[in-house]
Amino acid sequence: MNKLYPLKFKPIFKDKIWGGTRIHSVIGLDFSPLPNCGEAWMLSGVEGNPSVVTNGFLAGNELNELLEVYMYDLVGDEVYEKYGNEFPVLIKLIDANDWLSIQVHPDDELAAKRKIGRGKTEMWYVLGADKNAELISGFNRKLNKEIYLEHLQNKTLPEIMNYEKLAEGDVFFMPAGRVHALGPGTLLAEIQETSDTTYRIYDWDRTDSEGNSRELHLDEALDAIDFEVHDKYRTDYPREEEKSVRLAICEHFTTSLISMEKYAIEKDYSSIGSFVSLLCTEGKAIIKCQDEQYDINAGELMLIPAIIDNILINPLQKTKLLEVFI
Fold first, then answer.
1. Both 31 and 141 in a single domain?
2. What is the pLDDT of residue 207?
3. Catalytic residue among 200, 206, 214, 246, which?
4. Residue 30 sits in which domain range?
5. Same domain as 282, residue 209
6. Residue 1 domain flag
7. According to the model, what pLDDT value does residue 263 have?
8. Phi, psi for 103 (deg, rounded to 5)
9. What is the C-alpha separation between 174 and 137, in angstroms, rounded?
10. pLDDT at 264 over 90
11. Are residues 72 and 136 both part of a single domain?
């Protein structure tokens, strides 16, 4: 069997009623013939939407096929023991040109109870935001199911939500159960559990070209919602250059931001026992490993198989990479 190497994938583009054009105009990805694009799935093992390799001798193979063949070598021993032939993370670019629905995701326990696979904890890293861009994260006051249902019935749900102004580089961690919505004028990267389960609660009374509303999931959402109010929803982290900075850590994924321009960074992955994905959000770099080198440019994702312990990242200009592993 030929040895594994850093893998690149073809993005999967998703047309959304709230999507825009920034995945092309800012990131440079071509999603034609879609009129607009809300999401680009950069790394996916979701059934029916698997990522396909574009480089090397494995080009044309689906991620799930590789997992069945290479198993531990691809994702790591502990990861494979836990997830088997299910790739555990889904990584997207999202362009919101309008409000997404106010929504919530179930946790793993509720998802298992309902036999719908895994829950959905996620995080957002903001790549760009218009002047007045904002998102919803959680509630702005303490409430219970009865008060929530009253606002839902009166269509005043937006009044009790917590709004956060956005700027490039902002990070928001969204654990399963937290009600949230992304607002217009925002481009971001999303890292999440492998799940496509979303419970829509409120869709801004929006209809499509034929006058139809999108389906809501009010009953399903009720048991999923976390009604707790938190002091802080935005994640603070040191904005440092020429370093790797941790953005989020949870049982489902760990994410760091690598910012570099002048100096190469060597990464030793021998102790983590996991694959590593590198999403280039800005610039370009050369990845060196196994006596070979591979280029990565803005708008590309590279999967470093778990069997590869060491890489050297050499920036060719100011470059930012989101590093994700289990």
1. yes
2. 77
3. 200
4. 7-222
5. no
6. no
7. 95
8. -145, 170
9. 8
10. yes
11. yes
Q: Are 324 and 254 in contact (CB under 8 A)?
A: yes
Element (H, E) at 83: helix 77-83
Residue 315 near residue 82, CB atoms below 8 Å: no
- CA 305 to centroid of chain Cα atoms: 19
pLDDT tens digits, 121-160: 999 999 999 999 999 999 999 999 999 999 999 999 999 9
The answer to whether the beta carbons of residues 87 and 68 sit under 8 Å apart is no
Give the pairing type, strands 276-282 and 301-304.
Answer: antiparallel
- Is 239 labeled as catalytic in the residue annotation? no
Count of residues in the chain: 326
User: What six digits make up the tokens of 12?
Assistant: 């999967």
The DSSP code for 236 is: P
The token pair that represents 214 in the structure block: 């999108």
How does strand 49-50 pair with strand 254-260?
unpaired
**26 and 73 in contact (C-beta within 8 Å)?**
no
End-to-end CA distance of the chain: 26
Give the number of domains in the chain: 2
The CATH number that applies at residue 269 is 2.60.120.10
What residues have CB less than 8 Å from 232, skipping those under 6 apart? Answer: none
Entry pTM:
0.95
- The tokens of 43 are what? 């790394």
- Do the domain assignments include residue 150? yes
